[in-house]
């Protein structure tokens, strides 16, 4: 599980995890964020799309699906 979820926020709009409006996996905060990339978590499908477009413009879209944040300790330093 995320050790300190309050330390994380949407990498697009900066909305803190646990804040109103943050989308959780299956709508449950304990399940973690609904959207994420290899760079961090995203608060909503809207920010996920915005991030995707930004990465496409940068030419830095990941070639593989982002790792599950619970399976990628490097994303969430404990
Ligand atoms: Zn956001």
Helix and strand arrangement:
Layout: E1 35-37, E2 40-42, H1 45-58
Antiparallel strand pairs: 1-2
Bound molecules: zinc ion.
Zinc ion is lined by residues 10, 12-13, 15, 42-44, 47.
Report on the architecture of this protein:
By secondary structure, the chain is an alpha+beta fold. It has one domain. Helix content is 18%, strand content 8%. The chain contains one helix and two strands. Strands 1-2 form a two-stranded antiparallel ribbon. Strand 1 (35-37) and strand 2 form a beta hairpin. The chain is globular, with a radius of gyration of 12 Å. Zinc ion binds at residues 10, 12-13, 15, 42-44, 47.
The largest sheet is: 2 strands, antiparallel
Category from helices, strands and their pairing: alpha+beta
How many DSSP helices? 1
Give the overall silhouette: globular
Low-confidence stretches: none
Helix content: 10-25%
Return the domain count.
1
- The spatial strand order of the largest sheet comes to 1-2
Encode the helix/strand succession as letters.
Answer: EEH
Bound molecules: zinc ion
User: How is the quaternary structure best described?
Assistant: single chain
Beta-strand share of residues: 5-15%
Q: How many angstroms separate the termini?
A: 10 Å
Number of strands: 2
* Rg on CA atoms, Å: 12 Å
Mean pLDDT, rounded to whole units? 83
Q: Tags for this entry?
A:
single chain, 78 residues, alpha+beta, two-stranded antiparallel ribbon, 1 helix, 18% helix, binds zinc ion
């Amino acid at each position: 599980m995320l050790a300190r979820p309050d330390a994380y926020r949407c990498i697009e709009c900066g909305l803190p995890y646990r804040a109103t409006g943050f989308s959780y996996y299956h709508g449950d905060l304990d399940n973690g964020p609904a959207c994420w990339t290899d760079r961090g978590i995203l608060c909503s499908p809207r920010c996920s799309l915005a991030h995707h477009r930004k990465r496409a413009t940068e030419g830095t879209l990941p070639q593989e699906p982002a790792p599950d944040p619970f399976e990628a300790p490097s994303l969430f330093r404990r």
